[in-house]
Each structure stands twice: as C-alpha cells, then as structure tokens.
Design a protein that fits this description.
This protein is α/β, with parallel strands linked by helices. 56% of the residues lie in helices and 7% in strands. It has 20 helices and 7 strands. A 7-stranded mixed sheet has the order 3-2-1-4-5-6-7, sandwiched between helices. The protein starts with a strand and ends with a helix.
Amino acid sequence: MAAKIGVVGLGVMGSNLALNMERHGFPVVGYDLDANKMRAFLNGPAKGKKVAGVDSPTALMEALEKPRRILIMVPAGAPVDSAIDHLKPHLEPGDILMDGGNSAFLDTDRRNKALEAQGFLYIGTGVSGGEEGALWGPAIMPGGQPEAWEAVAPILRAIAAKAEDGEPCVEYMGPRGAGHYVKMVHNGIEYGDMQLIAECYDLLHRGLGIGAGELHDIFNEWNKGELKSYLVEITANILAREDEKTGKPLVDVILDEAQQKGTGKLASQNALDLGAPIPTINAAVESRILSALKPQRVAASKVLRGPAISFKGDKQKLIKAVEHALYASKVTSYAQGMALMQIASGEYKYDLRPKNIAKIWRAGCIIRATVLGQIMAAYDRNPSLTNLLLDEAFRDAVASRQESWRLVVQTAVGMGIPVLAIGSSLAYFDAYRSERLPANLTQAQRDYFGAHTYRRTDKEGVFHTEWTSNELQAASK
C-alpha cells in the first residue's frame, strides 16, 4: 500500500511528526540524506510501525500515493532550498511540498510562487510545541494554496493538538507565506511572555528576597487562575527543581545568558518595516541581547552604582501587584502581536483572521494560555477590532489592574531592577491611550533641521517655518 505522506529530514522534529502521523493511521515513508540517521529511526522508535524508509528521491516518489504529499523538516534557510532542488526533478504536476521549519515568511512567499509557476503546490507551515508537541500534538499554522491545504487537512487535523473543546489546533492561515508569518509572530509573543515572567521572577527574587521554593508556590498558584498557561506552569516546575550536585535550586546555578534562534528578532524587524509598534516584544529581544553581554555586565557592576535593593513595604501586596502587572502586560503584548498581524495581512494580502489564530494557539504551542479563549471572545464580539485593548472586557480588566501595574514599575525602578518588558508594556498602554503625544515637538525639530514640513491642528495643509530667521532677528536686537 502506498504511503500517505513522506517526511524528508528525520531529525527529532521530523521523526516525531512521522510517528504522530503513523499513530493516527497515515502510513509514512521517511527519507534523509544521512542514511545512519534513517536506519536509527527505523530500527528504533519506528520499529514495527507503518513507517518505511527509502534511500533516494526516486524511491520516495514511488512509495507515495498521488498527488504526493511531502513534508520537509530541515533547518530554515539554504537547506530548505537545497531540499526543494533535490526533490523537484522527481515531482509531477499537482504534487505538494510542505516546509514545516521556521522559515522566514518572505522565503516561503518566494518558494510558493516559483513552485506554483512550475505546476507544484507548496505549503509553508508553522509548527509549535517542540519535540513533545511534534509527537503528541502541536499547534499547526499552514499557509499556501487553498487546494494544497485541502489535500493535507485530514492529516494535519488528525495530528494537531486538541483544545479543551475538542477542536484541532490547526487552521488554514492564508496564501503563500501566511502560515510562517503567523508562526513568526507567535514566536515574538513567546519572547515577550518569557521576558515578562522573568522580570516578575527577578523582582520577587532580588527585590523581595523570595527563594525558589516559595516562588514555586507563587507561580503554581498563579497557574490556577487567569495566568494559567504553559509558560507559567513550566516556570513553577523549574523553580521546584534542585541541582543534584550542589543541592541548590537549579535555576540559581544556570548562567544568566539567554540565547535565541532569531525568530523574535525577525518579528521586531518586520514590525519596524511595517510601522507597527510592538515594544514588549522588542524589549524581550533586547533583553536577550543584553544578557549576552555577560562579561561587560560583570565589569560594569563593579563600576556603575544604583540604589540599594531594599523593600520595606507590604510584601503580600507587591506579590499580588506583580500578578496583576503580569496579566496586564501579557494582554498588552498580545494586543501588539495581533495588531501587527492585522497590518501585515493588508500589506501582504494574507487575509489573516485573528480569531482563528487565537483558536489554534489554545493547545499544543508554547504560548497556550487561558487568555486565548478570552481573545477569541473579543473577536466574536467585534470581528473588526483594531486593538484588543479596545475590547470592553480587556479594557476593564486592564483598568482594574492599572494601579498594581504602575506600582510594580515604580517599585522596580526605585530598586534599580530592570523591567524592560513590563515597563514597555505600560508605556505602550499610556501612549496608545494618549490623545496627544509630544510628536508635535519632534516634527517641529524635523522641520527645523531638515525642512520636513508639518501639519497643523487648526487648519488643513502642509506647512514649513523658516525657524532660523527668527533666531537671527532676536540676536540682532
């Protein structure tokens, strides 16, 4: 019997997705340029299962039913182009290639157009959930030709994570690179969430002197309420783990140097290109960059002085305030990410649908959280909502936590504990709700030194002032 789907690239993600498909009744054929990797997979996790292996593209095509469905799971960038070039001479019109890696969305746009012109179909799909998600159910964000989606939808719906209501966490995102665009923003929000949680941990740990054991209890309790999410859950688990060698909390012996694969940075770069403000995500990217300056920070700590870290207020009040600040900042971060996707949808003609995006993030992915159900409800109330903060429920939720939010930022600043992401979230909120910003002065400066002109509040038109002429007159008097 011909296999339903082929998987090219049998690393951890590729092999786990193959096992997931096989478990749901879809016979799989695998192919990898590294024959040893393929043999290890076939003789190990795939042994006794409906998973075959082949040693050439020709054999791969012969083993697949038509139209052929082939999932490519190789590192983003040049390896994807190389895999496509390796397979393309053996394809027939109507065959479908899928890229399940973290490809840049513009690369996916390019590949989709080129392959379509040659008679092939192409899907770029975000896959979130890591190794465990790939095996047991990820969130899947496919984009490409609608007919390609229809051809692979039964497989993707079967292997995707299931939300509490039983709905599979996969939806068609839109044409060309839409799926990889959504995954990029997902990863940006993930960066933001992680940094917000880290700043809360830092303020409670350094500012209040709370140890890992008590912090575990705090985060564990938070995970039972409005902050319930995968990232808060694993934070509680991390804080409970002890280092086997030293007996100290393991988190205390991990070097404070966060690495990144660049997907958050791509979101920031694209937002700048589109003119979309996402300061929480930007702050998270910048925080990782700052963390990488470890030697400089160690040297600077011996030279640069700040306030003494000492808190004399109500400890329980601040802990509750941090909980509220985390929720308000999280909502603000999602508001930024959703607004970015709405701008991009128009710019790239992706027809992204915010409710569907929130729907598929409810399970399987790294940013799965209770708040996503609330986001879906917001778009049910108003499908054309321009910003989540304008939704009545979120407006009231943030307003009721605003005093706590400001207390947290003020306390952190007073103690010299950096809260780049929480502070940026609050600043975004304050800027977005301001009818008038000081950009009038900025525009006057631009007109002064570069004759860039300005508009007025009291009449229509474009104006320019000869600013230096007044200065010369004043100087001569």
